């Protein structure tokens, strides 16, 4: 009996890790899908430690996939600081822009933390947010843009940063909001995608570091080391493949797929709520 309960717990952690991993990189809101999974599949919320672990797993996948760009931009920025040569200026400016774009979400997250927490459990809010995401993706689905990293402006970066702030609302996809904003101001698909996921790095690291004290004080961390590990690996692998697929879909200009998916899930949840009310 005890082994069956333990197996069920492991399966739950596996499913939650997969859901986080699959939905984090793509523009459909990972946090929203975890809430929906908990409601419709009966999966329990595993708390802050779990959220941080699976989030870090997704972060590692992002860093691994973009490692070459990451090293190039870091190297270029350091060379600019050392030499002030103009050919490295765009790499240095890219990092400055990332910091600036992070500020709105960081401030709003600190000020609205309690309100976001109270709203994030309502599946009706998630459904409406998914519909908004679907509309936004549909509007920019055919945009290509011409601006590369060396051509983006401070004003455009602030707009993308404000979009990331909006994504703090439950059910609004972070990657979806930032990519929609970036493509809306004329960035190429590749630039929008790269900036969006580089922007994810400081946000994810910052939120994780701030919560480390709570993780280490979690009395269940030793007891649940194995199921936590299952969720971490599941999220890591799923995030890697989901992001790889998303990159290919972005290159082919098929964002309509995610728009349709958001409409199906959003209207499906609203229909369900109408039936039970």
From TrEMBL:
Protein name as annotated: Undecaprenyl-diphosphatase
GO biological process: one example: regulation of cell shape
Entry's localization field: Cell membrane
HAMAP family per record: Undec_diphosphatase
InterPro entries from the UniProt entry: UppP
Function: Catalyzes the dephosphorylation of undecaprenyl diphosphate (UPP). Confers resistance to bacitracin.
Record Pfam families: BacA
A GO molecular function held by the record: undecaprenyl-diphosphatase activity
Transmembrane segments: 47-66, 94-111, 123-140, 192-213, 225-243, 255-275
GO cellular component: plasma membrane
Superkingdom as given in the UniProt entry: Bacteria
Protein's gene: uppP
């Amino acid at each position: 009996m005890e082994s069956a309960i333990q197996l069920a717990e492991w399966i739950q952690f596996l499913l939650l890790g997969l859901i986080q991993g699959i939905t984090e990189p793509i523009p459909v809101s990972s946090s929203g899908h975890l809430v929906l999974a908990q409601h419709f599949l009966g999966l329990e919320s595993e708390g802050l430690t779990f959220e941080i672990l699976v989030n870090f797993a997704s972060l590692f996948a992002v860093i691994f996939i973009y490692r070459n760009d990451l090293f190039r931009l870091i190297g270029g920025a350091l060379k600019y600081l050392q030499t002030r040569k103009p050919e490295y200026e765009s790499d240095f400016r890219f990092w400055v822009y990332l910091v600036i774009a992070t500020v709105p979400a960081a401030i709003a997250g600190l000020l609205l933390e309690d309100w976001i927490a109270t709203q994030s459990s309502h599946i009706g809010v998630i459904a409406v947010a998914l519909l908004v995401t679907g509309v936004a993706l549909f509007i920019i689905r055919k945009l290509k843009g011409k601006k590369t990293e060396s051509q983006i402006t401070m004003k455009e970066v602030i707009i993308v940063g404000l979009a990331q702030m909006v994504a703090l609302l439950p059910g609004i996809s972070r990657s979806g909001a930032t990519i929609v904003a970036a493509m809306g101001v004329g960035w190429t698909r590749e630039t929008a995608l790269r900036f969006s996921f580089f922007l994810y790095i400081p946000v994810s690291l910052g939120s994780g570091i701030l919560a480390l004290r709570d993780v280490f004080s979690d009395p269940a961390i030793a007891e649940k080391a194995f199921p936590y590990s299952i969720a971490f690996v599941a999220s890591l692998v799923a995030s890697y493949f989901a992001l790889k697929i998303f990159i290919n879909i972005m290159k082919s200009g098929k964002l309509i797929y995610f728009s349709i998916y958001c409409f199906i899930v959003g209207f499906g949840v609203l229909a369900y709520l109408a039936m039970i009310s």
